[in-house]
Amino acid sequence: MNPSIAVLAGDGIGPEVMAQTLRVLQQVAPQITTKHGLIGGAAYCQYKSHFPTATKQLIDVCDAVLFGSVGGPIEAAEQPQWKNCEVNSILALRNHLKLAINSRPAKFYPALKDISPLKNERLEACDEILILRELLGDVYFGEKRTYTANGYKIAEDTAKYDENQIAQVAHHAFKIAATRKQQVVSVDKANVLDTSKLWRQVFQQVAKQYPEITLTHMLVDNCAMQLILNPAQFDVIATSNLFGDILSDAASALPGSLGMMPSASFSSKGFGLYEPSGGSAPDIAGQNKANPMAQILSLAMMLRHSFDLHTEANAIEKAIENTLDAGFRTQDIMQVGRRAVGTQAFTDEILHHL
Ligand code: IPM
Ligand code: MG
After folding, report:
1. Which residues surround ligand 2, an ion (CB under 5 A)?
2. Nearest ligand (C-alpha, residue 240)
3. pLDDT tens, position by position, for the chain (354 residues)?
């Protein structure tokens, strides 16, 4: 039977970058069937729920999920359509599918070296930094409460990890590192946090099974600084949920724009959800301005990891590089002397180079 994927475009720029991405899918792997579902604010309009049962049922019969983005404008955050939208949709979805590991590659493109905030000599030694992020633990999923005591409001978020959760990320990191530069930097805050002390211990323990890999530990504050001072020292970074959220945004800015960073999330059974690392960008939604690269590269990750379609995935990545080399730019990566194009025309060029 042909594989099928759940397509959840979501909100903001999600639908427009997804529409372009499906053109690419149609060209390289038309045998894959797409089934569309609603999530986020878009789902709320129809079902009064950010993650309706209909969408759960759709996902449960598909082989992978291609996700857009969710969330509304900050100024509308208290409206029912947007209130707790991210928590109720993408976090609930990660939990529903038990997506324990998130993989975010920040790739450096030679054609974009002048829009990077880094000096060229720092950038030239960089190829790709892969951030592996634990996705189901930490303050994201620990107990939360807001209450009043002695006339004050108090809020609590509990960070919690068990050793199996950490070991799963460690094994994944070492296996990936074996196919790359044989090095893993594990990032924590072990000088302060118990969860980080456990994180470090588990990484050291698991590392014994991978003697060919060099494991180093770095404190998260130092890592934030090192990413900017000397990004070329990193290949695979493995870290907890909250630190991974922050460091992956920081790393994505180094090549030039968050709009270029895809991501893949996996369950222990290997089920995959693929989504841009960035958000729904409501300020530019519906204007044909968004960079479709993150969504299209997420598709490439899906073809490679969920369907073993390596040739197709490589072809998409190459077509994107060629499009950049040919001088086409969306507004977020625009440079003097290059051709500014919209979401659709940029995708036309990718299709042309495929
Ligand atoms: C991300 C996003 C999400 C996260 C938000 C939307 C809940 O920032 O995927 O990085 O914090 O995980
Ligand atoms: Mg984030």
Report:
1. 245
2. 1
3. 799 999 999 999 999 999 999 999 999 999 999 999 999 999 999 999 999 999 999 999 999 999 999 999 999 999 999 999 999 999 999 999 999 999 999 999 999 999 988 888 888 889 999 999 999 999 999 999 999 999 999 999 999 999 999 999 999 999 999 999 999 999 999 999 999 999 999 999 999 999 999 999 999 999 999 999 999 999 999 999 999 999 999 999 999 999 999 999 999 999 999 999 989 999 999 999 999 999 999 999 999 999 999 999 999 999 999 999 999 999 999 999 999 999 999 999 999 999
Q: How far apart are CA 39 and CA 29, in angstroms?
A: 25
> Is 134 close to ligand 1, i.e. is its CB under 6 Å away?
no
Which tokens is 127 given?
């190829």
SS3 of 270, please? coil
Contact 48, 41 (CB under 8 A): no
250 Cα: distance to centroid of ligand 2 (angstroms): 10
Cβ neighbours around 115 below 10 Å, total: 16
Catalytically active residues are: 140, 189, 221, 245, 249
Nearest atom in ligand 1 to 94's CA: 12
275 lines ligand 1 (CB under 6 A): no
Ligand nearest to the CA of 249: 2
Provide the token pair at 235.
């290949």
Pocket of ligand 1 contains residue 296 by CB under 6 Å:
no
CA of 151 to the centre of ligand 2 (A): 34
Its pTM stands at 0.95
Assigned token pair, 324? 């950049």
Cα atoms in the Cβ-side hemisphere of radius 13 Å centred on 277? 31
The residue whose C-alpha atom lies closest to atom 10 belonging to ligand 1 is 245
Distances (CA, A) of 80 to 17, 44, 71, 75, 107: 25, 8, 12, 13, 37
Cα 287 to averaged position of ligand 2 atoms, centre (Å): 23
